[in-house]
Every structure is written in structure tokens, then in C-alpha cells.
Specification:
The complex is a heterodimer of chains A (624) and B (344). With 624 residues, chain A is of the alpha/beta class. Chain A is 37% helix and 19% strand. In chain A, strand 4, helix 2 and strand 5 form a beta-alpha-beta unit. In chain B, helix 1 crosses helix 6, helix 2 packs parallel to helix 4 and helix 3 packs across helix 4. The chains are: A alpha/beta (624), B alpha/beta (344). At the A-B interface, helix 1, strand 7, helix 9, helix 11 and helix 12 of A face strand 2, helix 2, helix 4, helix 10 and helix 11 of B.
């Protein structure tokens, strides 16, 4: 979707609206760090942006191998950016493997910047190249700028007396320096960051800064000849205010903290290390002053059970994981459902089944979230569409959990968790508080307290242990309507099952009507999405509409229960297309719940949708 | 336990209106009464007392105690208790589990609650069988136990609950049995211990594993096979006619005869509840050759998990303000001026 119009970026004029850059190297090359700092400089330059980190599951895969390639893609521009971009305009390839793995994605006529210092016989063999692609003419359809970044880096940091290995570690900063020059960026924020990061080893900071400066200087001198040209992307005209970049993992942490504060509760977070959810545990562990207790449990089951225990004792229990861990938590979710205790469960979805693709993105845990428990065990499911959107979704999850005394699942995915986007820093006072009031009086005058006496929402009272005179017992065995005592009576089980279902179904009534994200309320085609497909769907629908097609975009945040008007809304379109990064799970939910002929469009490659893929699907659907 | 103002209650105050649903003659009844008898003696306050259990016959226990109670899921009671104690360290939490619940499906959680030293009392009712699922052999069943799932006899070696607890890092390990008049004293010692207090309670399952502990836990006539331990006292049994001596050459305990009550002459050793090595020997004594070691086997407190969590949290938050606006704006930010219009 980047709009470098001509074949050669060097010849581009006027300035493009958006550019896609991909940094690719060995998993030990620091590509994610480079990408992160480039993202920061892009944000500071006022561009809109979206990023896509794509890294292997192995921490330090064997050097130079194809499976050890780590990449970071950023799309930035002077207009609204919805995705990390279909195809890079610029590929920074730090070794032959990085070139090979990423070449297919590169736009024809795009620019390859390669470190010839790494294109040795040994590395070419590891990347399974028979001959050196830089020399054999196989890269003819792209512009190639190949030079020995390794040697230039070693030369640049010579004065710091580092060993060869440490000197080469500065290569990523050299590359970043060049990128900063290419896009006319200020180096100072990166220099400040390096000084802060390596405050305890000034020589390492100095070497990295020297490498950064050397890369930048190289751009200036190399500009004279060859394909390298400086590009200035104008800032994106955004609403005024204070901004920062945010990843989904950061946003979910901030949203949970905000949600607990709005509920007036301390938060208890039970977690167990798992990719890509661990980042939430790491963030929250540093926020103790906000009344957050984090507990790294012995396993996924203990993590959710401890969170339920904390909720029982009067805090807001939260747990998070990814698909395999969520599977382990299933039985405990059932207990939270039958004991009707508030709980927020965050699932950062990844490719499955089983261990699947730990570092890749997918939306294939929707069935698990909606249907994946024993017994009739309904709970609300909310899905976040972007890193910034997770913040609001997390607050919403906390609100529903405490107001309805129910566990709530918040679905994000690897893409949302790791990707970054600019975020307008919200005013905490702009959110409506939803303070919790615990039951402290006997609600059954003259008798024993009724822990299952329901309010108008169908929610039971929240009674903390420690409250005088309200002692009672709860548990996972079916309980008597009202007293909560064990009760196997057939009519009672029917009544309690109905009550639990009615409570969750009832949430739909207060959600407000489902709106149309882009387009008209009715027409030939609605493209319906949920979760992180938001960006590509929006851009694809926008592009198709500009071509005159009758298509609208509807994006669901509440995937269970669906907003009350969902069926009525979708029936206003001739056709409904549901693109998903799974084999058609939301499509099934829509068909089941709304009896509409929703058509699937699926992709399960561990990669987000490309805009072009969606545009093609929309065109095909409209032609049929 | 916790330092709280003692409350005056009677046994009746701890009884619920629920009909007890254990089999007639089950050892659980005796344990329930012992606990209900002990709680008033502890000055326990029903509103601050929480019984947490897993799944199994023993885990129905909370329904019969008039306090707060949480009957959770199979094997996970320690994890729920951890959340409860971290959320409110003032609560006095008792865990009720069994040999299947605590050592099979929940073995992992039991290990970690002991290792972390959460300040709770853990009562493991050991009846060497799965009762509620109709009599399959359990991780504490002896080799050769014939059950519906092991019709020819079980072949795997049993777990030893107290050895497991010590190995997991428990700082308090005790033993009692259902009908023992000493059980309340054992429970009181457990409650007095600050930290995870592990109590194995031998419990007679009269339906599926009747009288397996009869040799030392029969209501009458088995006293000679009981070694009731007391800190600083000689380890005597069989009416003081026998005792345990530490054999320095073989580095083990041996049974010796005591003549005319002169235990010193017989070389009988004194119990020391803080001696971890001794505790390891006592929990491993093979019954038959040795009596069953009962009472407080080990008691040597260390700082509790929740106190460490609270202290760390206090330290980390000192001087910090919970300012959401500041939190949201952490990291590098930039300001966009007031002239731009919303492009969407």
C-alpha cells in the first residue's frame, strides 16, 4: 500500500504519501531493537505508522540460518496508516538468509540495502544460495545498494577498543543511522536513548553512537551516486494533543490498570510465562504503586485459580495467556462462571493447534473462547482491533466483569500484542468510573444471607470473606438458586443454567447498537471483521469504495454476546464476507446466532492479511 | 494463622445447617468434629476464617463449617488459597485436600504452596484410596492394592505425604489420625505455626479401604504402635517400654528397649522439632519395624510468602504516586499542535 510510484525510489518525485521499510537480519542482530527505535523516530517526526515485528520462536537460532531470520516492518506516512504494509519499498538485509527469506515480499523496483561483509561463502551456503545473489544478476528487478556494513562499523567504533564481536554488535545502529538519514530524521532521541540504555558502560554507548553517526554520514556521502536518496515524509495531520507509541501488550496493561482503578479495586494478576502474552506480566510487575499484585504461578492453571481466589477475596482477578495456556485454564473458567466471580482473561492468540506457531499471529481461538468449556458455560468475549484499541477493550472487560459478576475473555493476538502505533494519550478523567460496592448487609432479613440473590442485571452480590455475619459457602457443584447450597434438583439446575445464560445474553442489551465502521448501513456487500484484521479490511474497503464499489466495513468488538441489532444490520446487505485468520470461526458464530449466509475468506499463514488479497476477495464477491 | 483478637465461640457456632453427606462411619466425621472443637480453642473468628478445598470426599468439608468456604476444582485448592491470602493476608485460611486431590492431580500446586511458604494450614486426609469416584487406588495406596482399576493389585510405589512435604520445603510437618484424641493438639500446633503447616491425617474409608491404618489407628488397642512426638521429650512408645535411638555408625534411627523407664540408659534420643535431618528420618520410618511417628514432626518457621510479597510491594511503592495521567504518558511522547483537523 505504500505509494512509491516509480520503479526506482531514487527517482521519486513528488514525495510519497507512505513508505514501507523492513529491517531483516539474524535473530541475534538486534533487528527488533532497530525497528523499535526507528518507530520512535518516525513517531517523533509526526508520521502515522503501523509496525509488524516478525521473529522466530528460537531466541538465538543458529547464526545465518533461514529459520533464524528476524524482521521488523514499518509502514509510515503522511496519511492514515492502517497496516504494516503489503510489500516493503526498502529491505535492509543484514545477511544472505535475511535477503532470501524477505525478497519475495519486496515490491518490484524496491531498494535492497545489503551488508556484503556477511555475504561470505559460509553464510551463502547456510542460506542455500548456490551463487552470490548480489553478483549473479538475480536481483535485477530491484535496486541494490550493497556494501560492507560490517567493515564500516568496525572502522567506526575502532577508537572504543572493543573486540571484533562487540564491535559488530553495533552494526544495527549503523544501519539505523543510515535509515535515519534516508528519511530525514533527527538522531538526538536515539543518542539520548543509547546514553540512557548504556549508562553503566559509556564505551558501549559511545561505540553505538559512533556507529549511528557513521551510518548517517555514509548516507550523505553515498547520495552523490547510486540509488540512495533522501526522502522526507510529511507529518500526518492528526488531532492535537499528546502522543506516544504503544504496543498491544502495553495497552492491555494500561487498560487493566485503568479498569481496576475505575472499579475502585486493587488488581491481582496471575500469569505464567508464555509467548506472546508474557509481556503483560512484565509490564504489570512494574506497576505495584497502582495497587497491582503480580503472581508468577507454577503453571497456567494455578495462575487463573489464584486470580479467582483473589477475586473471591475482593480484588479484581486477571490472568493472561495464549491458546495452549487458555486451554489449561478452561476448567477454572467454568468455576468462575458457576461461582459467578469477576475475572478478566486475556488471550494473546497465536498460531495453533498445540504449540503451533508461538510467535506468529492467528485468530483461531474464537471457538475456544466462545464455546470451549464443559457444560453450558457462557461468558462475554471482547476482541481488540489494534494496539490502541486494546486499551479501551481492557477497560470494557473490567467493567463487564465486575458489573455482571462474570469472567470475561479479551482476545488480542500476536500482531496486536507486538505491533506499535501512535496513541493519543487519554485523559484519565474522561472515563466513567464504575465503582464496585461489596455486599455488607444481610440481604435476607431474619435468615441466612443469599449469595445468589440476583440484581436487575442478573448478577449476584459480591461478598468478601471478612464481612461479619455473611459467612457462606460457594463452589463448583450446582447450587441452590438463592442460598448457594449444593442442590442437584432437576428444576433447580434448569433454573440456574437459564439464569447464567440470561445474565450473559442480557449484556447485549446495554452494549449499544453495532455500527458501520466505513460505508453505508445497507448495500451490496458488508465485509465483517473482528480483532486485528481491522487495519487491512478498512484499507481494502476504503480502496474498493474509491474505485466505486458498493461495499462497507463492519467491525465487531463484542463477539459474544453480539450487539442486539447485529442480525438486523447485516440483513441490510445482499452479501456478507467475513475475512478471518482462521478457517471461518466468526463466520460460524454469525451463521449460528443470526441465521445469515455469511461467507468466509480465510488465511492461516501466521501472517496478517495483505490489503491486495482482501481487495481481490471483495471484487470477486461483488462479481459473483 | 494470624494474630487476631480471639473470639469466643462454641463448637455449635461452627456447624452449618447443611446435612453432612459422608458415608456413615467415615473418618471424616471425626476430623470435622475435631476441627469444630479446635476452632473455639484457637479463638478463631468465623468471619475471618476461610476453608478452601479441591475435589473429593474430604473436599466437601467447607460446606460443614460455618465460616467462609470455597469448594474449588480438583487439586487446585493451594492456588486459590494463594490468591486469597495475597489479596487479604488477614484471613485465616485452612486447606482441605486428600491423597488423590493433593498428591496426584494437585501435586504440583501442593509442592509450590509449601515451597513458597504461604501462611495456611493444609490438612491432607489420607485414606489411600479414591473414595468419591468409587474406590480406585490412589498415589498413597500400598503396592498390591486391589481396586476396580487394579484388579490384580497395584504395582506402583506409593508416595509418602510427609516426605513429599519436607522435600518440597515445608517448614511444618505433622501427623494425626481421624479418631485420635490428640488431633486437636496437632491442629493447634499447625495453626500456631506462621507459614505453610502441613498435616497428614490418616482417615479411615470404611467403604473402599476399611481399616488400612488399623494397626496404629484403631480406636482402641493400637497405642503401642503410636510414637507421639513432643519437642524436647524422649521419643518413647509402647507405654515407655521402647524408644528410638540414633545409631551414629549407621546414621539411622533404631528401636531400643527401655528398662524400668530409664530411657537415658537405653540411649533414647529426644525429639527436636527444628532438626530437619531428624524429621526426614521420622517421616520415612517403615511402619511395622517401627511405630508410626505422630504429632509435630517438624516445626521451624521462616518468613511467609505473603509477608514477603507485601513487604516488597511496600518498598516498591514508597514515594511513588499512582497517577494514571503520568502512567499513560510514560516513555517518549510528542505533541501535535492545534491546527490539524481529524483526517478520518
Amino acid at each position: 500500500m505504500a505509494t512509491l510510484a516509480a520503479d526506482k525510489p531514487a527517482a521519486v518525485a513528488p514525495t510519497p504519501e507512505a513508505v514501507v521499510v523492513r529491517f531483516a537480519g539474524d535473530s541475534g542482530d538486534g533487528m527488533q531493537l532497530t525497528g523499535g527505535q526507528f518507530t520512535l523516530s518516525t513517531a517523533l517526526a509526526g508520521n502515522d505508522l503501523a509496525t509488524f515485528p516478525d521473529f522466530p520462536a528460537e531466541i538465538r537460532a543458529p547464526q545465518g540460518t533461514l529459520f533464524g531470520v528476524s524482521a521488523f516492518q514499518i509502514n509510515f506516512g503522511s496519511r492514515e496508516i492502517n497496516t504494516a504494509g503489503d510489500a516493503p519499498d526498502v529491505l535492509m538485509a543484514m545477511n544472505p538468509a535475511a535477503l532470501k527469506v524477505n525478497l519475495d515480499a519486496l515490491k518490484p523496483g524496491g531498494l535492497i540495502i545489503a551488508d556484503t561483509g556477511e555475504f561470505t561463502k559460509r553464510n551463502l551456503d547456510k542460506a542455500k544460495y548456490d551463487s552470490n545473489p548480489i553478483e549473479d544478476g538475480s536481483l535485477a528487478k530491484w535496486d541494490v545498494l550493497a556494501f560492507d556494513i560490517s567493515a564500516l562499523t568496525i572502522e567506526a567504533v575502532k577508537e572504543f577498543g572493543l573486540g571484533n564481536k562487540d564491535a559488530l554488535r553495533c552494526k544495527n545502529m549503523w544501519t539505523l543511522g543510515l535509515a535515519l538519514w534516508m528519511f530525514d530524521r533527527d538522531r538526538q532521541p536515539i543518542v539520548d536513548w543509547l546514553n540512557a540504555k548504556f549508562a553503566k558502560s559509556p564505551e558501549i554507548a559511545g561505540a553505538n553512537i559512533a556507529a549511528l553517526n557513521a551510518g548517517h554520514a555514509y548516507g550523505e556521502t553515498a547520495e552523490i551516486s547510486g540509488p540512495l536518496k533522501k526522502l522526507h515524509i510529511d507529518p500526518w495531520p492528526t488531532p492535537p494533543g499528546l502522543y506516544r507509541t504503544i504496543t498491544g501488550a502495553e495497552a492491555v496493561s494500561l487498560g487493566l490498570v485503568a479498569g481496576a482503578q475505575l472499579a475502585g479495586l486493587p488488581m491481582f494478576f496471575g500469569g505464567y510465562p508464555i509467548t506472546p502474552a508474557s509481556a503483560i506480566l512484565h509490564h504489570l510487575a512494574r506497576l505495584k504503586e497502582f495497587g497491582v499484585t503480580t503472581f508468577q504461578a507454577e503453571d497456567e492453571i494455578a495462575a487463573i485459580c489464584a486470580a479467582i481466589g483473589a477475586s473471591y477475596a475482593g480484588q479484581l482477578g486477571v490472568t493472561s495467556s495464549s491458546g495452549p495456556g487458555i486451554a489449561l485454564k478452561g476448567e477454572a473458567m467454568g468455576l468462575a462462571i458457576i461461582t459467578e466471580l469477576p475475572l478478566v482473561i486475556v488471550n494473546s492468540q497465536r498460531g495453533g493447534p498445540s504449540t503451533g506457531l508461538p510467535t506468529k499471529t492467528e485468530q483461531s481461538d474464537l471457538y475456544q473462547a466462545v464455546y470451549g468449556r464443559n457444560g453450558d458455560a457462557p461468558l462475554p468475549v471482547i476482541a481488540a482491533r489494534s494496539p490502541a484499541d486494546v486499551f479501551e477493550c481492557a477497560i470494557e472487560a473490567c467493567r463487564i466483569a465486575v458489573q455482571y459478576m462474570t469472567p470475561v475473555i479479551l482476545l488480542t493476538d500476536g500482531y496486536v500484542a507486538n505491533a506499535a502505533e501512535p496513541w493519543k494519550v487519554p485523559d484519565p478523567n474522561s472515563f466513567e468510573p464504575f465503582p464496585v460496592s461489596f455486599q455488607t448487609e444481610n440481604n435476607n432479613e431474619g435468615g441466612h444471607v443469599l449469595p445468589y440473590k440476583r440484581d436487575e442485571k442478573g448478577a449476584r452480590p459480591w461478598i468478601k470473606p471478612g464481612t461479619p455475619e455473611l459467612m457462606h459457602r460457594i463452589g463448583g457443584i450446582e447450587k441452590h438458586d438463592g442460598t448457594g447450597n449444593i442442590d442437584y434438583d432437576p428444576a433447580n439446575h434448569q433454573a440456574m443454567t437459564d439464569a447464567r445464560k440470561a445474565k450473559i445474553d442480557g449484556i447485549a442489551k446495554e452494549l449499544g447498537p453495532q455500527g458501520v465502521t466505513l460505508g453505508e448501513e445497507g448495500g451490496k456487500l458488508a465485509v465483517v471483521g473482528w480483532g486485528s484484521t481491522f487495519g487491512p479490511i478498512r484499507r481494502a474497503v476504503d480502496n474498493c469504495r474509491k474505485k466505486g464499489m458498493d461495499v462497507s466495513h463492519i467491525h465487531f468488538r463484542h463477539v459474544w454476546p453480539l450487539p442486539a441489532n447485529s442480525g438486523e444490520l447485516l440483513r441490510k446487505y445482499d452479501k456478507v464476507l467475513v475475512p478471518e485468520m482462521n478457517t471461518g470461526q466468526f463466520k460460524t458464530v454469525l451463521r449460528d446466532q443470526l441465521l445469515i449466509d455469511a461467507k468466509p475468506f480465510n488465511k492461516v499463514s501466521g501472517q496478517p492479511f495483505k490489503i491486495a488479497e482482501l481487495e481481490a476477495a471483495i471484487e470477486k464477491m461483488l462479481e459473483e | 494463622m494470624n494474630d487476631m483478637t480471639p473470639i469466643e465461640t462454641t463448637l455449635k457456632d461452627w456447624e452449618t445447617d447443611q446435612e453432612v453427606r459422608w458415608c456413615p462411619g467415615c473418618g471424616d466425621y471425626a476430623i470435622l468434629k475435631a476441627v469444630q472443637r479446635t476452632l473455639p480453642q484457637l479463638g478463631a473468628d468465623p468471619k475471618n476464617t476461610v476453608f478452601v478445598s479441591g475435589i473429593g470426599c474430604s473436599s466437601r468439608f467447607p460446606y460443614y463449617i460455618e465460616s467462609y468456604g470455597f469448594h474449588t476444582i480438583h487439586g487446585r485448592a493451594p492456588a486459590f488459597a494463594t490468591g486469597i491470602k495475597l489479596a487479604n493476608p488477614e484471613l485465616d485460611v485452612w486447606l482441605v485436600t486428600g491423597d488423590g486431590d493433593g498428591l496426584s492431580i494437585g501435586g504440583n500446586h501442593l509442592m509450590h504452596v509449601l515451597r513458597r511458604n504461604l501462611n495456611v494450614q493444609i490438612m491432607l486426609f489420607n485414606n489411600e484410596i479414591y473414595g468419591l469416584t468409587k474406590g480406585q487406588y490412589s498415589p498413597t495406596s500400598r503396592i498390591g492394592t486391589k481396586t476396580p482399576s487394579t484388579p490384580i493389585g497395584s504395582v506402583d510405589r506409593p508416595a509418602q505425604p510427609c516426605a513429599f512435604a519436607l522435600g518440597s520445603g515445608a517448614r511444618f510437618v505433622a501427623r494425626g489420625f481421624d479418631v485420635s484424641k490428640n488431633l486437636p493438639e496437632v491442629l493447634k500446633a499447625a495453626h500456631a505455626h506462621q507459614g505453610a503447616a502441613f498435616i497428614e491425617i490418616f482417615q479411615n474409608c470404611i467403604v473402599y479401604n476399611k481399616d488400612v491404618f488399623h494397626d496404629f489407628a484403631a480406636p482402641k488397642g493400637a497405642e503401642d504402635q503410636q510414637l507421639w512426638l513432643a519437642d524436647g521429650e524422649p521419643m518413647l512408645f509402647a507405654g515407655g517400654t521402647k524408644g528410638l535411638k540414633f545409631d551414629r555408625d549407621e546414621c539411622c534411627l533404631k528401636v531400643v528397649d527401655v528398662v524400668d523407664g530409664d530411657w537415658e540408659a537405653a540411649g533414647v534420643a529426644c525429639h527436636d522439632v527444628t532438626n530437619r535431618a531428624l524429621a526426614h528420618m521420622l517421616v520415612e520410618l517403615p511402619f511395622g519395624e517401627f511405630p508410626m511417628a505422630l504429632g509435630v514432626l517438624y516445626d521451624d518457621p521462616r518468613p511467609t510468602f505473603e509477608s514477603a510479597v507485601v513487604a516488597e510491594k511496600e518498598q516498591a511503592t514508597t514515594g511513588k504516586k499512582a497517577d494514571l495521567a503520568e502512567l499513560f504518558a510514560r516513555g517518549q511522547t510528542w505533541t501535535v499542535g492545534g491546527t490539524a483537523q481529524d483526517p478520518i
